[in-house]
Amino acid sequence: MAQFYKPKANKSKQLSSKMSLQVTALDHLGAGIAQHQGKVVFVPGALPTETVTVQLTEQKKSFAKAKLIKVEQPSAQRVKPACQHYNECGGCDLQHLTHDAQRQHKRDSLVSLMQKMSGVSQITAEMLKDDIASTALHYRRRARLATLFDKNRNRLQLGFRATSSNRIVPIQSCLVLAPNLSALIEPFSINLNQLKAKASLGHLELTQAQNAIFAVIRVTKVLPNSDIKWLTEFASKHDITLLLQNDDGQLTQLFPLLDVNDSQQVSLPSYPLAKGRINCQFTPGNFVQVNGDINQRMVEQAIEWLSPQTNERILDLFCGVGNFSLPLALKGAQVIGVEGVKEMVTQAKQNALDNQLNNIEFYHADLSANLAEKAWLGKIDKLLLDPARAGAFECLQWLDDLQPKKVVYVSCNPASLARDAKVLIEQGYRLVHLAAIDMFPQTHHIEAMALFER
Prior knowledge:
Blueprint: E1 19-22, E2 25-26, E3 31-36, E4 39-44, E5 51-59, E6 63-73, H1 99-117, E7 142-150, E8 155-161, E9 168-170, H2 179-192, E10 201-208, E11 213-219, H3 225-238, E12 241-245, E13 251-255, E14 270-273, E15 278-281, H4 292-306, E16 313-317, H5 325-330, E17 334-339, H6 342-354, E18 360-364, E19 382-385, H7 393-396, E20 406-411, H8 414-426, E21 430-437, E22 447-453
Parallel strand pairs: 4-6, 11-12, 16-17, 16-19, 17-18, 19-20
Antiparallel strand pairs: 1-5, 2-3, 3-4, 5-6, 7-8, 7-10, 8-9, 10-11, 12-13, 14-15, 20-22, 21-22
Helix pairs in contact: 1-8
Active site: 412
EC number: 2.1.1.190
Binding site for [4Fe-4S] cluster: 83, 89, 92, 174
């Protein structure tokens, strides 16, 4: 008799019956925390003090996850989300909480993680006096919108991905985007659907730069001339710089046309630093902070904490295109910027030339390797770190060889910051300042900055 494989039901993923829970706190990812039968239950969308109706969606040995069905007794801090797409779009996840309460929650989460993981037993009010606050809405100067072509309807959807899904939520506007970027979403959605090759379009990246509004469309094949003409006319009508990017990352500028004598292949977006004294260019697709106002204030605070002197050598790891390095060099210190992405190092060098800064050097290197062995490094007086979410654990292993007097650590993940702070403290540093930076209002993401002194 033939036997057929029948997969067993995944009990950990089965929905439970509906139940009522009391939410007592928020975790650092913005989910409500409740208790049920001795387990911690995480409920996205729920707030402390609330009584909520939920269904368990996943059960593990020590915790469970639940879906919020109904808020029975709402928190005084709950507000109606301003965005019409909030319940579907995965871009924001804390619009149901007042902005002031969001900031307090993020500060509390940062302090809690640092005290649990870093070895700092007490974080005083004096350490926490330098938080940086943002406006609640319209703060993003950059966004990447996803596309999905529906063959049955012959239609291209443009929007953001749903929470924990590849599904595209079509949107007409976005309240956290700069207004002039948000206003382009619906016209782009309409006009991209007029193209013959709309099935060959990837994401759309919008950037509000100092010099122009930039739009970059990812394409998987060469567009026909009729589509090029249509897009060029659209860009001219809306006064935007429009680029196409192929699968190899190569950029082609459709509008405005470059002068034949221009040595640049495409126009590059830029943003100001040091109160306009520095112009920082970057290539579309490369990392820049999305909140321009907060970025400028964060850079200024980092420089104030480091207090660069003209006779000092300062190392900037994960330097990107020079976001911190260039303003540091403007203060007169000798700056060494190191970055793992070669193209960003090339741009950083060009930014130094354009801003006439000759006291700065940029190098491409593997940031998990021991840079203390590099001949170009030499003695370092102070250090700035701005790593990705994974943190800088590998870099800190050889820091003892350099012994900088001060370390400023900029972080987009408080868990990796707390872990790395423990390494610094074990190497003889003490935490002097810790600031929560409101880089991403309406989301659970926490940006922070810490100052350590030897």
